[in-house]
User: Fold these one by one.
Assistant:
Number 1:
Amino acid sequence: MRYELYYWPEIQGRGEFIRLALEEAGADYVDVARTKGGMSKMMRLMEEGARPPFAPPFLRAGKLVVAQTAMILFYLGGRHGLAPKDEAGRLWVHQCQLTVVDFLVEIHDTHHPIGSGLYYEDQKPEARHRAEDFRESRLPKFLGYFEDVLEHNSRGGCVGARLCYADLSLFQVVEGLGYAFAKAMARTKSRYPLLHALRDRVAARPRIKAYLASERRIPFNEQGIFRHYPELDG
Amino acid sequence: MRYELYYWPEIQGRGEFIRLALEEAGADYVDVARTKGGMSKMMRLMEEGARPPFAPPFLRAGKLVVAQTAMILFYLGGRHGLAPKDEAGRLWVHQCQLTVVDFLVEIHDTHHPIGSGLYYEDQKPEARHRAEDFRESRLPKFLGYFEDVLEHNSRGGCVGARLCYADLSLFQVVEGLGYAFAKAMARTKSRYPLLHALRDRVAARPRIKAYLASERRIPFNEQGIFRHYPELDG
């Protein structure tokens, strides 16, 4: 079965967390909105049926359409060996992923503290203020939490040596923060050795390495979650 | 088995979504932080073990500790008949709940657009600006989405006539918004008849009715997610 991924075609955004899992799994998938006519297909699907997605990303797997980043990964993880098989392990990895998703909202809101539908340029003073609080308070809280998780789990990934989808997501978070908050991340690198080591290990996995070098990987840009605005990097 | 719920003792907050499910299920549970010595027990548990919660609420069920509001409900829903049994149905209710959780972040951030650790009084102008965008853009987007979901599902709850935990959460959202954004909600009531009808049906269920009248139900206040600040209600 070929999966159909639906996500905005010009950004990594939340869709990237799904792309990384599909790539690592070697799954057969099409990134629909990046194909001809794909955007209108995506918009149509959002209006259809009794169980519509609230927003992209969503995934079509046969007759099933699943939305919400963390839930799509929960679904894929069980099917492609990217999560433990026991209930406690499956729930734990999902819990890690939900915490990643919470973190993403806060990362996004550093450049959009007033309204996601408004321009960055119309909320710059507020963004500076929020980004300062983020760098000083929220960034160390989330990174410190995940560093502890890795420490507790044999200094490997969220469940130890065996790769899970939340590890792929942590790669993307560290990578994205290194782009958006380059100075803040460089300054604090020594505090989070296990997160940076996990980032390096994921980047070196053959399928991920090939993906990152391909045209399928959209570069970071100032339309996504992780944006490099020097005035927010402090 | 008696469940142990861990959450801040003086607010409804995210814990309330779990309390409502436990109450409707008639489950045996203790709201630990509201008992003597419970707060320090909660703080200790957050520092323990290889799979610590990032934040309350979390639930102890025997040896298992699960965190993240939506995941706790996913776990409880399957055990207490508050979710469909088929995979597609279970995922769909979880998807609805994850969208509720996204909505909650935006509701919270109307009074805390700059930093969750800062005082409301220190971010009042930004809160006015964000609340205005929320009332005009995000509130109708989320409520309109859920109204459509109910419309598509036989005008009942998220999965039709059979109550699920996401319906209990929608009750709490409508109730909380009616407290926080009393004017905005009164003005738009006729646009969301199915959501308001669902709120009324849930409130009339015997166990929920008894719970709401009990001392276990903490009143809304200005420490939680739903806060009534007249200057934000427009």
Number 2:
Amino acid sequence: MPRLLRSPIKHLRRLPLLAALGLASFGLAAPKVVEPARLPSEIRRTAEALRDRIAAGSKAYDWVREIVDRAGPRLAGSPGDHAAVEAALAILKSQGFANVRAEPVMVPVWQRGIEVGEVVSPVSQRLALTALGGSEPTPAGGIEAEIVRVSTLEELDQLDASACRGKIVFIDRRMARTSDGSGYGDAVPARSDGASRAARLGAAGLLIRSIGTDRARLPHTGALTYAKDAPRIPAAALSVPDAELLTRLVRRGGPVRVRFELTCGRKPDAPSASVVGEVVGREKPDEIVLLGAHLDSWDLGTGAIDDGAGCGIAIEAARQIAALSPHPRRTIRVVLYANEESGLAGGKAYAKAHAPELARHVAALEADLGDGPPLGFSWNAGPSAEAMLKAIAGLTGALAAGQLKVTKSGGADISPLIPSGIPSLGLTLDASTYFDLHHTANDTLDKIDPATLDRSTAVFATAAYVLAETPETLERIPEAARAQEAE
Amino acid sequence: MPRLLRSPIKHLRRLPLLAALGLASFGLAAPKVVEPARLPSEIRRTAEALRDRIAAGSKAYDWVREIVDRAGPRLAGSPGDHAAVEAALAILKSQGFANVRAEPVMVPVWQRGIEVGEVVSPVSQRLALTALGGSEPTPAGGIEAEIVRVSTLEELDQLDASACRGKIVFIDRRMARTSDGSGYGDAVPARSDGASRAARLGAAGLLIRSIGTDRARLPHTGALTYAKDAPRIPAAALSVPDAELLTRLVRRGGPVRVRFELTCGRKPDAPSASVVGEVVGREKPDEIVLLGAHLDSWDLGTGAIDDGAGCGIAIEAARQIAALSPHPRRTIRVVLYANEESGLAGGKAYAKAHAPELARHVAALEADLGDGPPLGFSWNAGPSAEAMLKAIAGLTGALAAGQLKVTKSGGADISPLIPSGIPSLGLTLDASTYFDLHHTANDTLDKIDPATLDRSTAVFATAAYVLAETPETLERIPEAARAQEAE
């Protein structure tokens, strides 16, 4: 899922340029009054029938199951990743997609190994922890040191190096449960940036409270980023119950010593692939509406919600559109991206390989926030696009919440398309419970509700169809707003 | 917790003798009309004040935390078990209990080791599994075989040996969620008896769906019993999501091969101890009301709900009664039993060591079903006891559901007291979510709600006080109903 999902308000504050351009969103700031687009009645009727057919029961869940059961965990470059590519190709071919192919991508490879931890004193207790993605291993035998607990990254930055040197920094940052997932963006810098910020103070290792909203004894992994100017120290996430144990022990007073050992590490880059299939447009086959999701997953669970669900939504939305006769005006292209989780190599490779035709990509949609229920879309496009998006929101209003909000990127995978100005839409889903499971061993098929997934698929398909069929296209992202978020 | 908790209806069916004796319970069969006991008003007022004081906020949670944080997992004979004995002794001494002591018990020792599993074909996937308590190890390198899936033990019994020989039997028995925990008694024979019943058919190993009501990727352990007439094959529980994966793979058709390896095993018996402390009675100090819970736990979690919560309830109930001036007529004896989970050695040792004074035990109460909310009591005593129990239920009705039901045993730890006719009461708690966590790594302190635990403690303390104070005592269990359940 998007690694930098932020609270909408904060997000807007960080986008003075967009705000100046009039990209204030519905419900978040004073709405700009725009006349709703009047969709041709034929398009409206077809879209409604498509929507209702999918919502009544689709095969989206079947595609998720096929990928999840055949491939299991599919960290970029792993055997599961390759199995997922095979499974996705088989699905697209069996369902009659055109131009089905695997587009090669070299991906960074990182492997988890042994990961154990324990409180050494004042009591002896095992700790449930997992290496953060990309972490260096500990020295053999692990590291043992006193912990220094902080509640936030900001609190860490205020510590003196003398308090941290040789210690294990423990960031006990709590993540808030929200329906839009904004608690994730607020909390996740502890995971992505914590190691380097602790290392600059001389810390020997980093432990964080899992970035998650649950109380299961299952830690949440996810990528960290090592800054170039800091030593690369090993870093792991504790399950929430274990983080709370550490905090209770700290509060009893006196030093708390912890040992942990990780044998994970980087391996040479390896080949993987994004999987692509198309529903060729009847009139403008070279104009493309891209439907994206990512095929890779973290390695602890089987990636059913992140992002098997998105793959199921994208495949099924396109499959249902393919069943329309005639096909819509433009081509629907499903892209199941390689390596979203640990490098975004699939998204970047796609933008590079398809550079010549990006000007003919009229929209890119992504599904990467679980199975639903659907709320609507986040979007980034020229201001006049709002009218069409309102029309789409009107069509899907009974299934979704009709939410439309301005975003910087509709999804991580499609974010490399922003510099080309391609209007991007992210399917927004209710993420209230998504972060209970996200990046844990608990991300398994049984967590997906097929009927909810159908609703989300119906909303996604409706938007895709309208964007592929209506004569006009969305205004592209203004030049000034095409700067990409730094990684 | 009681290993043989059964649905009340079934239970009654199995108790023709008790039924013949008129032990039908309120709400479960036609109630026998009994005049409610008229408690002396002084006793009633003191009991009400005690109840209300505890319900308004007690230290029960503090005692659970102290045991859980200091000892962590405390499987019989393990270092954590010894730490728990020390922690419990320290609590009882610090709180001014009389005659605080550790009563030595030799306990069976079993150690978990490496436990790994995977689907080998038709796909390659890891399986989250855990050895059942008492399981033999697999041969080095594990066992790999095709699985034979059944939904129930009964279905297994109908298979021909030719279908099972050399295979891994997989019992996919689902457990129902119920408020009284009866789903556990219905499902648990798959865990306790499955290995021997599969072994008699020539199976090489057993896998079961965890006996639990959750969907977490955390398997539930618990004791198995090897029959004397069957080979001792290794046995493990899959987490529910993993069991469902196996079932989906079986339903795809074709053989499903699994490999698993366990390095667990039995070790020589070791010393442990039950921890005892008393509130000495003012008038009949040699008459005893026993408050029981068990100090040991399974090794995956930290035993907060099973049975740290019961220990907290028993300790705090007695501590609050000790604060009464004067003390009640009889002695309140807290017994925190060793080794409930894997042998009941603590309960048996207590009955043996205290045989001379069992005739003066007027009641034994146990708390071993989590933190609550409280529903009432299950009971086993002579029929005339019902009047007093109704009076107690009346006193606690606003906090609990006033439930009174006939049982065979008020709890596993106190079940060895039944042959002596000691009236036994089990604190019945709403177990709707208890089996989401039971015997898993997820049984940690954060799952306990302090206010709920206070309510349960208030109910337990009220009963204990009334039974220790009222001049009359409960009618003892009739001779004919003292036969113990076979282990």
